[in-house]
Specification:
The chain has helices at 7-13, 33-42. With 43 residues, it is mainly alpha-helical.
Length: 43
């Protein structure tokens, strides 16, 4: 089991991290690029 989390990779995939600071409010964080792409394809 790999327990290492690549924080830098997660920040690169989450564009909201470039200009915003978000606190953990029960899942209210910015979605990663993959999620945004999928939502835009099926919305």
């Amino acid at each position: 089991m790999n327990l290492i989390f690549d924080v830098e990779s997660a920040r690169r995939e989450t564009r909201g991290c470039e200009k915003l600071i978000r606190f953990n409010n029960a899942g209210a964080s910015s979605p990663p690029m993959v999620c945004r792409l999928l939502i835009s394809l099926f919305a």
